[in-house]
Design goal:
The protein has one domain (2-159). 72% of the residues lie in helices and 4% in strands. It has helices spanning 2-29, 31-41, 47-67, 72-99, 105-118, 132-144; strands at 126-128, 157-159. It has a two-stranded antiparallel sheet with strand order 1-2. Helix 1 crosses helix 3, helix 2 runs antiparallel to helix 3 (47-67) and helix 3 runs antiparallel to helix 4. The termini are far apart.
Amino acid sequence: MHESTQNLLQLKGTMQKTLFYLDDAICHYQAVRDTDKIIIQGPTGRLSDYLACVHRLKKAEEYFQQEDPDGPELNMLRGRLESAKSQLESQFQVLLGRYSKPVQTVKILDVLAKKYLNGSAGGVEEVQLIPQTRLQDIISISTWLIGKVVVLPISTWLIL
């Protein structure tokens, strides 16, 4: 009786592991279908959802690279990831183009004059070049584009 119980418990553990791995595999197979709508709409206005979908596609790509490198799913995932990265690059360029504006020379001279008058220990003044929310979007996008050549602004804050 004890031996039969041990065998049944082993079978139960094996069955649970099998179901876990099967659920994981199904999740990767459905990644393109589940993320399709958001990826097609692009990152504008829903960047966090978009990046979550790109992350899911990347995880599925890693899974298929390991499990079935010659399968059609891997090629489909790579195509979708390239499209998503291209959209991220476009959004990155749009944000930089929209918010990258030169600081007026008069403003820089005013900040320098205030610093000179207050001394080096005196108040540090910041000239905001990019709004904080857009700066966070740019940082999030650039994190995903690390593997590519990314042109970041020389400085998003001028601290004198």
